[in-house]
Amino acid sequence: MKLLLLNFIAEAKPMAVDDYVGFTFFVGCMAMMAASAFFFLSMNSFDKKWRVSILVSGLITFIAAVHYFYMRDYWAAFEDSPTFFRYVDWVLTVPLMCVEFYLILRVAGAKKSLMWKLIFWSVVMLVTGYFGEAIHTTGAGPALWGLASGIAYFIIAYMIWFGEAKKLAEAAGGHVLTAHKALCWFVLVGWAIYPLGYMAGTEGWYDGLSSLGLNMDVIYNIGDAVNKIGFGLVVYNLAVNASKNKVEA
What we know:
Layout: H1 2-11, H2 20-42, H3 48-78, H4 83-105, H5 112-135, H6 141-161, H7 164-172, H8 174-190, H9 193-201, H10 216-248
């Protein structure tokens, strides 16, 4: 094991002091790992009905940490955007983030159909985004596929802000409603970070964003840290408050 570690260190490419993109990959990897440890180790502190939610929060950041480890090394080796690894990460973690809505709303009678709808539209959002960013990368392709991805995003936003999910959250009330609203704001504001990255990295009338010094990978890395860790902390806070109220009662 010691020999393998020494070989890895010897073969590792040093990070340039001005490589701010590589720095965000490194910080993202460590932040996701730390968040995963925090969520996993805190699971047994809560009632069973909240443990699955905390487990999913840990899985989201753990999956991201593993992919960030590979993305960091890919960037170090090629100094190119690890688009494939990133979308593999997203197609696993973003649906899990949608699952969190269902899990916290089960107390109000949420049905699995709500979960599957959110998962479906999240996959559509990601697949169409990948087509525009990695396959149809010239002409009108990025804009058209980006539009399709945006439509799927707005369907998700509508469902949680005005649709079935909102009604369930209002029926639950209390800490569940507060947590639901917080997650909704993450989707509305936090997820809005990603279109900026998409526009900075794909061809179109909007690609002037890159000339402003906005790097696609930096934007994506910031978005991932804010949203994935933030989602988990909202769920953790809900579990803490729910458990505290039960003890006080």
